[in-house]
Specification:
There is one protein chain. This protein has 3 helices and 7 strands. It has a single domain, classed as Rossmann fold (3-Layer(aba) Sandwich), CATH 3.40.50. The two termini are 12 Å apart. Helix content is 23%, strand content 26%. β3 and β4 form a beta hairpin. α1 packs across α2 and α1 packs across α3. Strands 1-7-6-2-5-4-3 form a 7-stranded mixed sheet. The chain is of the alpha/beta class and 159 residues long.
């Protein structure tokens, strides 16, 4: 299992199982909605993390990658959850036709891959998870951007 992520500290993720374990731990301390931006290059584990987190939250259906659909919605227990992959977006204005008004619900979980491509059209993040390649495997760094993000990291550190 990866060590606890704290603001500004990196956590090694030597394999996909470690990425899954981290996502499961984050899901276990989530007590409300959250806007989580997932940054990182191709193959850094953004979709793997999102899929594992949604599964850990109780999404009973197959968690699909939204690479082509851009957005997938789920019911995760009591939470409405949205998973966006904006890799194919060239301009944030393209997001208008998706009807993303529901993303502003503070009780919703919003996971966004490639959020930099939706600048100005997305809710502000509570937490940014930076995933990257490392030798061996990958690494993760969490940076809170709101009180809600700081509180989640605090609970993660206590778990």
């Amino acid at each position: 299992m990866s060590r606890v992520i704290d603001a500004g500290l990196s956590s090694p993720l030597p394999d996909e199982a470690a990425t899954t374990a981290l996502a499961t731990r984050v899901a276990s301390v989530l007590d409300d909605g959250l806007v989580l931006y997932l940054h990182g290059p191709l193959g850094a584990g953004k979709t793997s993390f999102a899929r594992a987190m949604l599964t850990a939250l109780g999404v009973g259906e197959r968690v699909k990658s939204p690479t082509y659909s851009l957005v997938e919605s789920y019911r995760a227990g009591a939470l409405n959850a949205w998973h966006l992959d904006l890799y194919r977006i060239a301009d944030p204005g393209e997001l208008e036709w998706l009807g993303l008004d529901a993303l502003g619900d503070p009780a919703a979980l919003v996971l966004v891959e490639w959020p930099e491509r939706g600048t100005g059209a997305l809710p502000a993040p509570d937490l940014v998870l930076e995933l990257d390649h490392a030798d061996p495997g990958r690494c993760a760094k969490a940076v809170p951007h709101s009180d809600r993000g700081r509180a989640l990291l605090g609970r993660l550190g206590e778990s």
